[in-house]
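Sample entry as discussed:
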Amino acid sequence: MNHTMLAAIAESAQAKLVVHNIPRPVPGTGEVLIKVQAAAVNPLDTKIAAGQAGHARQPLPAILGMDLAGTVTELGDGVDGFAPGDEVFGMAGGIGGIQGTLAEYIVVDARLIAPKPRALSMREAAALPLVFITAWEGLVDRANVRTGQQVLIHGGAGGVGHAAVQLAKARGARVYATGSATSLDFIRELGATGIDYRAQTVEDYLKRYTGGEGFDIVYDTVGGATLNASFNAVKVYTGHVLSCLGWGQHSLAPLSFRGASYSGVFTLMPLLTGKGRQHHGMILREAAAMADAGQLKVNVDQRRFGLHDVNEAFRQVSEGLGQGKTVIEMDR
């Protein structure tokens, strides 16, 4: 039996990733060994490779990659609910000193994964975990999105944004989403009202869609000035602003004068701290149920990459050239 595997390794910051043959990991207690069939490339992966993402706590050299879809091949002690041959997906590594998904095999904490949605391909399933978990942690865990609410998603055509639009819609909200003029058709296909952020001011779309009252929930997936604008877009008292990129310096005055609330979303926490991992597995089960019910589509870029194309895939993501999530397939 072959006990080695190919893996893409970031040996130092700003250097090209190199594919090496290395020993295959062995699952410990509570872990499963997964044969990776597809792994997404997220913007955070490219930032780690460039040495720019200290918050991810991933010292180099390292195998990068956070999202995967694949097949369970071996169980460690104490694992229930999975068996060899099961198709699974999850956000499983690539930060906090943990091996990433850009390898033929990976050992994963079984709490972090869930059965792959039957309705999605391996490529589609691999593109889903990080963005869906981030959408869920904001809209459901923090804001309790529900029927009858008006929800504004900033960056509705992006990775987190397109998941958030579909999640809010599935839970009964009326959804609005900002984007560039070229993205509005896609936003409408997802079931949201598209808002061209270059053509309309916050005051314009607040008046048009909420009678000037503001939105119940505003989810910022862009950061910077967009988060500042979000503070002016929520309803007085009951409004709730969420952001997965609230890392800059922002004045809370507009939010405070509305008596409204703000929540930050930091999806990496369970991987970095070991706390709350079971919750990520639960969220992915919810994602699978939505996908299998026809309520969740995944926007995957049409270009096909194998592991040996990893640097071209990273370039596509870092330069924003893809149309949807970039995914690497191990058997190409």
